[in-house]
Design a protein that fits this description.
The chain has 236 residues and is mostly helical. The protein contains 10 helices and no strands. α6 runs antiparallel to α8. The longest helix is centred in the middle third of the chain and has 27 residues. The radius of gyration is 18 Å and the shape is globular. The N and C termini lie far apart (41 Å).
Length: 236
Amino acid sequence: MNHSQPKTAWRDLWAFFIYFTGQAVIIPILTLLAIGTNDVLPVPIAIIIGSLLVSLGVISFLIWSHRHNVRTYLVQCFSNLRHYIKLIIFTYICYIIANAVFMLTISHLPKKWQFEETGNQEALKMFFENPQWLPLVFISIVIVTPITEELLFRYVIVGELGKKFGIGIMGIISIATFASLHMQASQTILEIIPYILMGAMFVMTYIKSNCNIVVSITTHMFNNFIAFVAITMQTL
């Protein structure tokens, strides 16, 4: 984790292999085990546990990959975080305004193109059905998921691959990849727009902070915390 060096850490791409393989193997296995417990372990919670295990695998691999300088890099990132609080607030406000304008715009389109919440947001609600599991859901959605996604889509794609192919180009690819992976439960193609806007917010904070991964993680955590509170209030 050293952006002062122009050399690309190609081995970091293995983090994507761990991520997608884990999603395809670990989560289905835990889901089947949960079904066999007769609701002792709810299926949504099994999915959360599986996601946490996959995320921990990704995080652990990247820490190992940069074990020689990860501590120095993170100390520097945390020490510089305070300089970018205004950037985080500004980009979040811009995202909220842009998303509101988009939602207002589609309200004038035919009904088949309209939606109040994305399919991904609707799918998340199943994790909030049992209040006793909310602490685990909080850890997953607000803490671990932002760290994992920022490491993958910002640090590896923009930070590392950007050394080879250019930060601007990889920033666009990062946004497109991030948005596409949040479309699994979508009902209309227009649902990708909020995630493009969200991805743009994270990429902007990452690039504008001189590729400070802690800044983009903080932005992501803040966004997910607001979403967590909103969904909790809706479901309880």
